[in-house]
Structure formats: C-alpha cells, structure tokens
Amino acid sequence: MQERVKKPQFDVVGTRPIRPDGVDKVTGRAKYGADLKMAGQLVGKVLRSPHAHARIKSIDISKALALAGVKAVVTAEDFPGQPSEFIPAGEGVVNYRDMSNNVMARDKVLYEGHAVAAVAALNEKTALAALDAIKVEYEVLPHVIDEMEAIKPGAPILHEDMITTGVTPAPTKASNISKRVEFNLGDITKGFAAADLVVEREFKTKAVHQGYIEPHACLASASEDGSAELWVTTQGHWVVRAYCAKLLGWDIGKIRVTSSEIGGGFGGKTVVYLEPLALALSKKSRRPVKMVMSREEVFKASGPTSGGTVKVKMGVKKDGTITAAEAEITLQAGAFQGSPVQPACMCAFANYDLENVKVVGFDVVSNRPKVAAYRAPGGPISTYGVESVVDEIAEKLGICPIELRLKNAAKEGTRAAYGPKFGPVGLVECLEAAKESDHWKAPVGPNQGRGLAAGFWFNIGGETTVSLQLNEDGTLTLMVGTPDIGGLRASLCMMAAEELKMDVSKIRPIIADTSSLGYNFLTGGSRATFSSGMATVEAARSIVKQACGRAAKLWDIPEEAVTFEDGMIRPAGENAGKHQPMHLSDIAKVAGKTGGAIVGYAAISAQGAAPSFGVHIADTEVDPGTGKVTVTRYTAIQDAGKAIHPSYVEGQYQGGAVQGIGWALNEEYIYGDDGKLQNAGFLDYRIPVASDLPMIDTIIVEVPNPRHPYGVRGIGETPIVPPMAAIGASVRRSSGVRFFELPMSPPKVLKAMKAAGKA
Amino acid sequence: MRYEKPTTVEAASALLAGQGARVLAGGTDLLVQMKARVLSPDVVVDIKGIDATRKITKDASGYTIGAAVTGAELKEHPTLSKDWPGLVEAANLIGSTQVQGRASLGGNLCNGSPAADSVPGMIAAGAVATIAGPKGTRTLPVEDIMLAPRKLALTAGEFIVSFKIPARPAHGGDAYLRFIPRTEMDIAVVGCGVALALDASGTCTAARVSLGAVAARPLLVVDAGKALIGTKVDEAALAKMEAAARAACKPIDDKRGTVEFRIDVAGTLAKRTATIALERARKV
Q: Tell me, what's the ipTM?
C-alpha cells in the first residue's frame, strides 16, 4: 500500500508544551493595551456623533479648552486631508481619505458614534466635562441602514462622489454601491440546462461584531523632536505605524510602536481608531495620552463585519453531480467602501469542483460603522447561503450530505472559480473523517437534529522578519513581529527547538517593537504561524550554519566538513571522530572569541500559503414552547497541514465554532428607526457564554502543505466558515423548518415553527 | 456627590426627602447607571447601615426580609429555600454570582424595571413591603409598588425597609422561571412566578400567578390564579391558566422580543412554572 503522505517524526513539533506567555496571563502580570502607565499621562476621550447621518456645520471647542485641566482638543482640522486613492496594503487596498475621515469626521458624520473631536485632560472627569463643553452644530440628514434599502433609487447618498466601479459603461450618478465584482467559470446557462433539480434561495445575515474582550486601547507619547512612541493592542504594529504616519504626515521611522498583549482581535484590531488621535493629542499637549474605548464605543465605532443578502442558485443531476452554481452577494461596507465582498464571492463555491460558476458581488455603503476584517472576512456569509442550499439539495435528492459533498468536493487539481488550481488540499479527508466520527454515527434524541457543512479559507503569507539570538549560555531569544493572538510564540519556539534539537523552554520569545526588527505585516489571514514559522526556521538554520562555521574555525577544518546531527556539531568526512563534538551551547560560550555574537535573521516574504478546508457537525435541540435552540453536540474537523502545537490548533477550531454559533443563533446589530444602535453592549449583543455551549470536539486532519518546512497551513479563519450553515441544517431537522435568515433567534424560530404547525 | 450612611430609618427618610437623593442598597443598578452617566445624584443614601434592612427574621406569621439582604444571603438562610424556593431562585438569577452577592430584593424592585427577576417571585409569594417615610411607616403589597418603568408608588423621602413574606401554607409550593436567549447573564424576556396551595385532597385552595416583562409593570394575573383554584391542577386547569396568562400580557416589541413572542412564551412559562410549583406543593 502506498502512503498518501509520508509523515516525518518530530521531537517537538506536534507535542503540547506549556506556552511561554501562559503564566503571566494566568497571574495577571501580562500587560494589555490599557495596562501601561507613564508619568504625567493624560486621559483622552472622543466626542462622537449622536446622529446616523448629518452635516457638521460647525464645531466650537473654545469652552472645552477653557476648562481647567483640559490640555488639548483635536478635530479633523488637525489631520492633513488625504486624496482618495486606493493603495495596496497587505491583503487588500486602503484608501487614506476614507481612513482619515473615519477616525475623525470631516464635513459629515456618517454613523452614530462617528468621532468628531477628541480631548486630553488631567483626568477622566475633566475629559468628559470637556466633551460636554464642545458645541457641534449638525444639519441632520436622512439615513439608511439596510444594504438593500441603500441600493434603492432615492436612498440617501453617503458620498456624493461614489460612482460604482466594475460596471460598463460607468454610471453617471453617485450611488451607495462602491463596486461590482464578478467571477465566471464555464457557462452556467448550459449547466442549469443539464440539471435535474435547481434550488434557488435568498439568505439574509446581520452585521456581527468580532466581540474581542479587550477594548481598543493605547498610550501615545510624542516628543518635541518629532519622534513618538505608541503602546497599543493591535494585530499589527507595523501597520499601525504606517497608518498613523500617513494620517498625521509624520515620518515612519520616527514612530516606534510596541504591541501589548492582545485580548482578542479576530481581524478587528488590524485598523486604527484611537491611535492617530492619541498621537495628535500627545503632540499638542506635550504629555503622554492614554485612550481606552468603552464597550459601547467598541460596538458603535469599531468594525463589525458585514450583514448581507446572498442569493444562491444551484443545479444538480439526480446522482448529485452539481452542474451549475450561481450567486449574487450584496454586503454592507459600513459608512465607507470596503466590505469583504470580493473574498465572499471567491469563497462561495470554493468547496466544490465545478464546471459552471457565476458569482456577482456588490459593495454597499450605509450609515453604519465601517466594517473591519472579521475572521475569514466574507467567507462565512456566502458559505452560509451556499452550504444551506447544498444541504437542501441533499435532502431533496435523498442523498447523505457527506456523500453529496464527497461527490463534488474540491481536490488537488481542481480549478477554483476565482482562478487558481488547488495543490494538495484536505476537504475529502475532512469529509471522510466526519463520516467515520463517533458524532456522525451517534443517534439523536427527541426535538434534536444534526447538520453538517464545509468551509474554506485561502490563507496568506507575506512580509515577515524574525531575529534569533544565541545567547552566551546557549539559551536563545526569539524576536518576532507578528502579535501573538493564539499561541504563536509557543509554536514558533517549538519549530526553532525542532531545528536546533533544543529543549523548547530554553528559547524565550518576545514580540519586538517596530524599531527593533524589520517590517512585519500583521497577524491576520491566518499567516502568523505559517510565515513567522518559515522565517523562524530560516533563522534557526542560519544559526546552525554559523555555529558550524565557528566549529570549523576552532577545529581548523573546512566549513563543509562540519555537520549538525542530533543536536551536536560534529566533524564529518575524513575528519569524523578527530574532534570532540560540540553542543550549540559550547559554541555559544566561545562565540565572542570566534567572531562575535551568533544571530539568525530572516527577512522574507513568505510564499506558498495553502488553503485549509474544514467540516463541522452540529447537533441542536429546539424547545417547541419557546423556539430556543440549544447546541447539544458539536465537532469541528479541519485540515491543519501540520499542527505544530495541537492544543492551539484545537483552540482555534473551538473558538471559530463558538463565534459561528453566536452568529447563527443570537448575535446581531439591532438598529432603531432613528438609525441608532440599540444593543451596544454584551447584555443585548449576545455572544455565547460558556454555559450555553457543549464541549466543542475537534478532529485535526493533516494533509501537509508541501511549501512549508513543517507542512503548516493557516488554520485560524476556516473554523468560522462552516458553523452557520451547519447549525442551519441542524435546526432544519430539530425544528422541522428551514431558515433563510440569521440569527435563528427564539422569536423567529417560534414564529416559523407555529406557522409550520410544529410548535 | 455626597455619600451618607444613616443608621436609623428616620435619618434615612430625612436625607431622602432632599433634592437629588437616591437609595443605595447593593448598588448593582445605581452604580452602573452613575458610571454610564444616566444618573448623577447629589446624595447617595446607603441604607445598609440600618439594621432592619440587612436581616432575615422568621416567626409564626412568616419571614421579614430586609430590603438590602442579598440574593446570596437568601440562599444561605437555613429554611427560606425550603419554604419559598421559587423566590430564592428568582433572586439568584439576577446577574452573575458576583452580582448576586450584592443585589437585593429592595433594589431589584425599586430599580423600576418590568423585567426584574425577583419581583414576580415576591408577588406570587404574596410579599408586602414595609415602607418608611417622613410621615412614618406604611405597608403596600409588592404588586402595587411599581407603576411604570422607573416609576414607583413611593413619595419623597420614602424607602422600603423590608418585605413580609407569609408563612408557607401546609401544602404550598412556589416556583419562578424566566425566558432568556442564553443560559445566564441576561435579562428576562418573560418572567413568571407561581405560588399555590393544596388541601389534603390535592385540590388547589390558593394560587397567585405573576408575570414580568410582558407589560409596563410586573403583573399579578388574578384570572390565571383563579383558573387553578378549586381544581386538581390538571391539564384542563393548566390550559385555562395558560390562556389567562396570555390574555393578561400587554407587552411591547423591542430588541429582546416581539409582542407575539412574549405572549406565546408567557403562556408556556406559566404552565411550566405552575407545574413545578405543583410538584413542590405535593411534596410538602
């Protein structure tokens, strides 16, 4: 029998050591965004718009400045105007005019909570009094919240210069549609003609927040010499540095940004809100300025992800072969363009090997906070629609949902509708694992049902720099630049330890600041363990090479005649046995005398990121008297390529599943007719609490990524892609009703069950 | 803002009669509202210095529970949970474990929310408040205290010192259930308290049904109680009670639930709550 994948044996990779950042997080010693204090620091607060849409006629800050203890006030006038242009940045593009106008409103406020001014004062009480003393004169404008309302003729227009791109000929009038995108493969007309069954459905999802427990927080200190320091909770401090420099017109090299520990980000801490304001206030006041958002501000003014409308049409033959697939996806961008509609379109049918596909997407602005990335941005929304239709097809054809997916699954060589051909991917392996799982085989009880769905995410690599220092006692210090939000430091130390055949506890990692290391793109796109891992391996191999060179010098033999085996540096070839093998720590001790410090450095743009597929199984029980849905059992199965530290891989699977369960059952932005958010707090924005959930079981599938030294795939985002469709399919069976709208909250479920005679 | 901690009801009444004074018991609502800048009282009158607000006493006529006694203290009392388990459970659904260590029956009522968990529990149990004020002391049934959201039948200077809970009938039982979309840390979308008593033959001799979060104030649904009295609390009686409970609802559509949903769930909960109360009554 031929082995599909040859699995190498590792000493450290694949084990579960205690994470190096664990003790300080458990004891409370770890410092998060709001935990740093500087002598003389001021409290910064933001004045926010009470209106969903209004023109700013005037802002009078004189009374605020006159208050004792108020040291600075900033408004849009303190930030240079930016041209509207799309600049490539990391995974996408940024528009600095939008970014500037989002962190501080200029001319118009576009959502409730939009910043209009910021103050720095000696204490919180004075800062709040200063906010009350700022007089803003507004001309209130009509607003629009829902994306389908926003695209109707006559809807209030947010940006007078917004001409839809991607449409030929270009429209002559402004609208709220920023762009139209389209992806095609084959011929859907032919494909639908060949189908025995066509299912067409429309789905609606609500805006949901990332729900990180730590609010945005930073401490800025600007010097009179033009330099500045910024301490901030972020997923990418080099990105924060670049954004702040641009928004303030300062030199990048003069801003030193240090990332604090981070209490969750999920994509939402990849952008700036408070940071440029704190720096501007610090420069004006000549004092350090600390700013921390309240939870209400987090909900009203930081990025949720889009709500949207997803139309899906799929055709199949009686045997389950999908002949054509079509989708139209309309996503809320918030007040400024830039919803994740493109990745939503690209993900929509990525689970399947299809010949005929058409996907069209629209990016729509409305009077909501600007969306920010949220774990697999866009993917969960389109996948919810598509996987729900696939489930309905399975039901209508009487085919097992796993078999239907196996019949059509994307595999190595499949051309995705958005362009590329997949390399080795693990969807089939995940489906097989689901089929073999105890969960899939277990019976369900009364009022219970089981659902299954698959999901995909691309994953990225990108700019990454690490430095690995061999210390004089043989221990190592690893400096990385991707903030650790999910066990990254542990995983990187393990890869270094594997390379160097060292005890992992001898390697101490830090997240270095922007002035201590070359550029790092942020922790996002499920890139950190992949990219920083690749760079760490390169740096470790450089250490080995340097150490061999030092040994060659000591032994006076050619460098090529030295090898590194089993953690020891040995003379090889004709010199073998002529010198006592040396441990890395022996070399470390004599580094000073043999050429100086030994430092491995890797500055790379990581290539070869590979997608990760996952399959989730959900059991739910519905209460026919109240419509309440309880998740009774849940299993997340996913291809990790190679799990460096399986506990943190499992943690990602579980966390993504839980966020997806919240999205499916209770989470939603609720707006009043006045355009104001009604549930800007965790009481009425219901993320699941621990007692709401069963243990989330996990199965790690490993189909190695051939382009990573240890086979790693990014795994952080895929786990939030399948849950909503899996829960939907499960609720279909527990309640007897198929739902097309999220969240499946009790009032909706009870109403639908009553209408169907099931309650 | 001034903080005062008087030790007598008279001193507390005098302070509360002044402008901008608020009562502080556990503080789990007041302090949150002050921090959110919803309220900024001039004087905060902490009533926990008054002995009568902090103790539970029991005699032949029942219990006297101080207005500032916490949910956790109710639970720790040696006999209260045996006699009035529904009331104790209701108070211990408020907030988190930490909040239950501070939040009191008096505060939960006087915060003036129609969704307060302990209030339907108290109303079902037949609790009567002892109110102190500048003109002396008076009593008022709990169902008559809250008039509308944030509006109470208390006049300037008045505050609740304690609640009188009657002795449990020989074959009596009570229960409280609420509906929330999650399992804890939430506000009732519908709350329901039921207390009933049986005679030796198992016939219902008294029943009080109270609903929360389905009207501008917590309701005592007399008709729902009447539907059970004189019956064996069988399916037919329960169905009648369920219908009476639904008929009494005058809810609103809001972010926590629709009118239709609240009315539906009120009936469902009333039946489920009465069933638990019945089981308890049969066991004693």
A: 0.96
